[in-house]
Amino acid sequence: MKVPIYLDNHATTPVDPRVAEALLPFFTETFGNPASRNHAFGWAAATAVENARKQVAKLINSRAKEIVFTSGATESDNLAIKGVAHRYRERGDHIVTLPTEHKAVLDSVKRLEQEGFRVTYMRVRPDGLVDVDDLKHAITEKSLLVSIMAANNEIGVLQPLTEIGRLCHERGVLFHTDAAQAAGKIPLDVEAMQIDLLSIAGHKMYGPKGVGALYVRQRGMPVELAPLLDGGGHEGGLRSGTLNVPGIVGLGKACEVCRELMPEESRRLAALRDRLKDGLLAALEGIHINGSLEHRLPNNLNVSFRGVELAALMTDLNDIALSSGSACTSATPEPSYVLAALGVPEELAHTPLRFGLGRFNTEEEVDYTIGRVVETVKRLREMPSLEEPLPAAPRFRQA
Ligand SMILES: *Cc1c(COP(=O)(O)O)cnc(C)c1O
Questions:
Q1: Residue of 147, 292, 308, 373 with fewest CB within 10 Å of its CB?
Q2: Ligand 1 site residues, Cβ closer than 6 angstroms
Q3: pLDDT tens across 273-327, in order?
Q4: How confident is the model over 171-197, as pLDDT tens digits?
Q5: Predicted TM-score (pTM) above 0.90
Q6: Active site residue 328
Q7: Cα–Cα distance between 154 and 190 in angstroms, integer?
Q8: Full set of structural domains in the chain with CATH
């Protein structure tokens, strides 16, 4: 076993060797521009891109022509949300989302708020899930779009996509889901779930960084979008700019590999995650698991430790690559806005550890991690905290 151990697979994943092998020739040999229609170099690149489009489509049960390649899930989220708002502005001005969404969604809707759109941030339950009954009341005549993520990037909870999709379609509202954490990890079906727009990131599913996709519904009620970029009109006019062919080939291959491995891999990772959870629970008191355990990605565990300072914990666990799951600026870690939205008490919202297991983690690494976390938490709890105020000295001496 090698240290440091990588347990931060929600931040990014390594490129699968099968993916690396598939994409490498597209830097040096098959380097043509797929928009070059007059020669074999262009045709070969275009063929590879269309093959990747099919591979992505197959993972989510869409058609190939419904896939638009982007630079990643941030761009896909921006294109979906701003694209709908700007295209359908005359029909309405209201968007529904969750306070626990990724910043790529939250900051996109915030930008639209500055332009005069109205946004409803729905309440989530203490387990992190949205209540579909609440959503019924949040949707109005003026609603254009519901944007609710498939799987949360901090706590891994899965939202009820099928029920949300059904409701949105009954009410004539478009449904976008950020599936950056879910794609390739759990089954997704844009038909069964009645999803109109779905964002994917290559680097969260063992593909390369800087490439992603947006599924845009064409079947039934086709969705139109106002593009973010103007230019050569690539990707059906939705995303101008020369295609990132090696990245796209890698994303396609990553989708294919994920689809093949998913049944076995999700079982294996869920077993490792449960081993980690049970190991921590058996050895430590005062730990709190954040988010639903039942409706959750197989590879996620998010735990708060009572009476432990997160910065000290992370520093001492320097042989394990972990994240707090929140935007953590060096000196003063911000409490997680995701945990705050769940109503996790401030004291616990400050100390979450996010474990993100991945394809290449082993049982040995999990057992080592349990040992190190247990030992470190126990030691830190025994140390007197420097932050604790000293007992106040009596101001007046009693006579
Ligand atoms: C990582 C992530 C993003 C951003 O994806 P990039 O491809 O890095 O831009 C968006 N949403 C979620 C849920 C993510 O986990």
A1: 292
A2: 72-74, 102, 104, 149, 153, 178, 180-181, 201, 204, 212
A3: 999 999 999 999 999 999 999 999 999 999 999 989 888 999 999 999 999 876 5
A4: 999 999 999 999 999 999 999 999 999
A5: yes
A6: yes
A7: 24
A8: 5-9+262-382 (3.90.1150.10), 17-257 (3.40.640.10)
Element (H, E) at 75: helix 73-87
Atom 9 of ligand 1, residue of closest alpha carbon:
74
The token duo for 95 is: 């968007």
What per-residue string of b and e applies to 55-73 under the rule 16 or more CB within 10 Å gives b?
bbbebbebbeebbbbbbbb
Q: Phi and psi dihedrals of 24, rounded to 5?
A: -55, -45
What six digits make up the tokens of 50? 């269309």
Q: For residue range 94-106, what is the model confidence (pLDDT) as tens digits?
A: 999 999 999 999 9
Which tokens sit at 374?
């247990």
Substitution candidate for ligand 1 out of 101, 153, 299, 337 with most atoms within 8 A of CB? 153
Helix (H) or strand (E) holding 44: helix 40-60
For 143, 150, 291, 334, the CA distances from 153, given in Å and listed in that order, are 26, 10, 12, 17
